[in-house]
Structures are given as structure tokens and as C-alpha cells.
Amino acid sequence: HPNVKCYVAHGGLLGLSEGVSAGVPLVIVPFFGDQFHNAASAEARGVAIVLEWSKFNAQTLQTALDKVLNDPT
User: Fold this and answer.
1) How many CA atoms lie less than 13 Å away from 39 in the CB half-sphere?
2) Which helix (H) or strand (E) segment is 22 a member of?
3) DSSP state, 55?
4) 16 φ, ψ to 5°?
5) Which of 39, 42, 52, 70 qualifies as a cystine partner to 48, CB 3.0-4.6 A?
6) Structure pTM?
7) What are the angstrom distances between the C-alpha of 44 and each of 5, 57, 60?
8) Residue 57 — φ and ψ, nearest 5°?
9) How far apart are alpha carbons 41 and 37 in whole angstroms?
10) 8/60 Cα distance (integer angstroms)
């Protein structure tokens, strides 16, 4: 949908593919299986910010969202 500005996801392959296909920035919080590899690949390609589940809280999410929504780099 054109109103989607960011996709927060766990990093599963299907959701990751949809986010990349839609061209929206991703905030990924992996916690199981292939999600870690998928998240690292997306981050290396510059389409995602990855947050660690063990450090995930309101502040880390807010910082990540602020970066993807307001930082043009």
C-alpha cells in the first residue's frame, strides 16, 4: 500500500521479500532460525536496520524508526 512508510518484521523470507518488493525500509527484529541470516543480508544491502531481540525496547524501536523515516542517507 502506498501509505506504508516502514515495515517492522521478524525477518522471515516471505515478509522480507514483500518489504523489499514494495520498496519500503525495513526494521527487522530476528529471533529464530533463518531470520538472523535474512536480516543480516538485508542490512548489508542497505534496505534494513536490524535490532537485537535481547536489546529490543521502546527506545531502540523509536531510534530505528526515526532513522528510517527521517534520515535521507
Assistant:
1) 21
2) helix 13-22
3) G
4) -60, -45
5) 42
6) 0.89
7) 20, 23, 19
8) -155, 180
9) 6
10) 13
Q: What distances in angstroms separate CA 12 from CA 40, 53, 63, 68, one per listed residue?
A: 12, 14, 22, 20
What Å distances lie between residue 70 and 18, 40, 53, 57, CA to CA? 22, 22, 23, 20
C-alpha cell at 22: 514494495
Q: What is the DSSP letter of 28?
A: E
What is the Cα 32 distance to its own chain's centre?
A: 15
In the chain, the amino acid numbered 6 is C
Q: pLDDT digit string (tens) for 23-44?
A: 999 999 999 999 999 999 999 9
Total residues found in the chain within this entry? 73
- Helices 35-44, 13-22: axis angle to 10 degrees equals 20
Please name the residue that has the C-alpha cell 532460525: 33
